[in-house]
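Figure 6 in text form: structure in, sequence out.
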C-alpha cells in the first residue's frame, strides 16, 4: 500500500519540554515514512513548540504545520486538523504524550480488517515516572459492536466515560458524515459531547489491543492542573452533552447516565474550587446551579439517590431548587 495511510493530528501549546519525544515516536510508526501524514497545530505557543514542529517535519513523508497566533483551545485546534486529513484513517495525539513504535501501523491494519467507524484502545498513564495501565471499559476485544450498545449500564463505567480522543483511530467517513468535529471554543471537557455523539450516531466500533499510548499526568501546564477560568468550560461541555442525549430518540434510556455523570463532574469541580479565586468560585457555583436547573427534576433526584453521601452533600445546595 502506498501513500498516506494515517493522518495524525497533533495540537500543542507550550509543549516544548515534551513534544520532541512525541514527534520522535511518531516517526517510528511505519516502515514507510510516506504512510503517515503529520498535521501539527501550534496553538499560540510562547516557547519553542512551533520551532520543534518545523524541525521535525522533514522526518515525515507529508507534513502540514499550522500556527494560531492566539490560542483557540484544544477543540478548535483539533477541528483545524480535521480539515487537512488525507487518506481513510486519522487519529489524535497531544503534545505531551507519546506512543510505542508500530502502534499506528497495528491500528491501521486492524481498522482495515474490521472495517468499522472507529476503534478504541487502552492507554498507560505516566505520573512522575510511574506507569499504570488504564483499560478501556468494554468487555469484548476485537469484536465490532454498535457504539450505542457500549453506553449502558448507567450505574457502571462504560465507553462514554472513556472520552480520550487520542485513545484510538477513526475512519474519515466520520468526517464526511459530520460526526468528527469537537465543540468549537472549548478549552476543557471538549471530548464529552464528542464521545456521546459518536456513540449515539456512529454505526460501528471496536475496542482492540495495540502497542501502548502513554499519557503524561501532572504536567504543570496542563489545564487539568490549572485552576483558571478555562476550567469552567466543563459547564457548556456538559450542557451540550445533555442536549445531544435529549435529541436522541431513546433519550429516556440514556439520560439517567448522562445526568449522573454531569452531577459527578460538578461535584468534582466543586471539591477542587478551594484552589480558585473567589470570583471564579462564585462563577462556578452559579454555573453549576444553572446547569442542574435545566435538567428535569426526576433525573436529578434519581442521580442523587445513586450517589455517595459526600457527593450528595456537596451538591445539596445546588439541587434543592430542582425538586
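Output sequence:
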Amino acid at each position: 500500500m502506498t501513500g498516506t495511510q494515517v493522518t495524525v493530528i497533533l495540537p500543542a501549546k507550550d509543549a516544548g519540554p515534551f513534544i520532541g519525544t512525541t514527534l520522535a515516536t511518531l516517526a517510528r510508526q511505519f516502515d514507510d515514512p510516506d504512510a503517515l501524514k503529520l498535521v501539527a497545530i501550534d496553538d499560540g505557543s510562547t516557547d519553542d513548540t512551533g520551532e520543534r514542529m518545523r524541525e521535525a517535519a522533514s522526518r515525515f513523508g507529508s507534513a502540514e504545520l499550522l500556527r494560531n497566533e492566539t490560542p483557540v483551545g484544544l477543540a478548535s485546534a483539533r477541528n483545524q486538523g480535521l480539515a487537512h486529513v488525507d487518506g481513510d484513517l486519522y487519529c489524535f495525539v497531544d503534545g505531551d504524550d507519546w506512543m510505542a513504535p508500530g502502534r499506528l501501523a497495528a491500528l491501521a491494519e486492524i481498522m482495515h480488517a474490521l472495517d468499522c467507524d472507529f476503534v478504541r484502545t487502552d492507554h498507560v498513564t505516566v505520573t512522575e515516572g510511574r506507569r499504570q495501565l488504564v483499560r478501556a471499559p468494554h468487555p469484548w476485544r476485537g469484536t465490532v459492536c454498535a457504539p450505542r450498545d457500549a453506553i449502558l449500564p448507567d450505574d457502571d463505567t462504560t465507553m462514554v466515560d472513556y472520552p480520550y480522543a487520542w485513545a484510538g483511530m477513526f475512519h474519515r467517513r466520520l468526517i464526511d458524515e459530520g460526526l468528527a468535529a469537537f465543540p468549537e471554543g472549548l478549552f476543557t471537557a471538549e471530548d464529552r459531547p464528542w464521545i456521546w455523539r459518536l456513540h449515539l450516531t456512529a454505526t460501528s466500533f471496536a475496542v482492540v489491543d495495540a502497542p501502548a499510548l502513554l499519557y503524561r499526568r501532572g504536567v504543570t501546564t496542563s489545564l487539568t492542573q490549572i485552576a483558571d477560568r478555562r476550567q469552567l468550560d466543563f459547564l457548556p461541555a456538559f450542557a451540550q452533552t445533555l442536549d445531544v442525549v435529549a435529541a436522541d430518540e431513546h433519550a429516556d434510556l440514556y439520560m439517567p447516565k448522562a445526568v449522573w455523570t454531569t452531577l459527578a463532574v460538578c461535584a468534582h469541580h466543586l471539591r477542587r474550587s478551594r484552589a480558585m479565586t473567589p470570583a471564579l468560585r462564585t462563577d462556578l457555583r452559579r454555573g453549576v446551579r444553572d446547569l442542574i436547573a435545566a435538567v428535569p427534576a426526576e433525573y436529578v433526584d434519581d442521580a442523587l439517590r445513586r450517589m455517595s453521601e459526600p457527593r450528595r452533600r456537596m451538591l445539596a445546595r445546588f439541587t434543592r431548587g430542582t425538586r
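Caption detail: The chain has a mean pLDDT of 94.
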